[in-house]
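can u pls check wat happens w/ manganese (II) ion
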Amino acid sequence: MKFTYYGHSCFEIEVAGKRILFDPFISGNEQAKEIDINSIQPDYVLISHGHGDHIADAVQILKSSGAFAISTYEVVMWLNKQGCENGRPMNHGGQFKTDFGTVKLVNAVHSSDLPDGSYGGNPVGFVINTEEGNFYYAGDTALTMDMKLIPLWSKLDFSILPIGDNFTMGLDDAVIAADFVDCDKIIGVHFDTFGFIKINHEEAVSKFAAAKKELILPKIGQSIEL
Ligand code: NI
Ligand code: MN
């Protein structure tokens, strides 16, 4: 699998010959200026919740790529209204079998409304099982006991967790979350984009190392083979 980071909580995973983009927020991110949004041509766009820092570029990318959206019922209905009709509305606990693997929507403890203020449903994370490996993207969430269910559904190869604190869990809770989901390889997201979520990189890596876990802090534009 190949992971490419586009800043904040936006990344693409290439698996089974498909490109899956998560939580597109690029044009509004000062730090992601060098990313050409038109060069991103995913097959699928997965959206964890309706906040602008996760959905701002979804409509443009869905329209230019013809990609298939997977998100909550409320987010997919909202995308339909914006003219993006190719999508799968789901809700917590549901699993969808795609041509790259299975996508399961899991609980996230956060909030969700859409850029025009309309109701965004409840936020989610995704557990994705494929023939090339399994991973968990937590979306925006606090640490929650629900994460302990995830090993019942998936033996994870890596997890993508928010670590920036303030709007989501911070470093200490993210280390516990990695333990709850039984995963030793973590990619950190949702950090440094705004003043509220600036982190100390060395401290972050060493906190995970102390728990015998690897924390990867990707650079914007960087691709990592996993
Ligand atoms: Ni959010
Ligand atoms: Mn967010």
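The longest helix spans residues 171-180.
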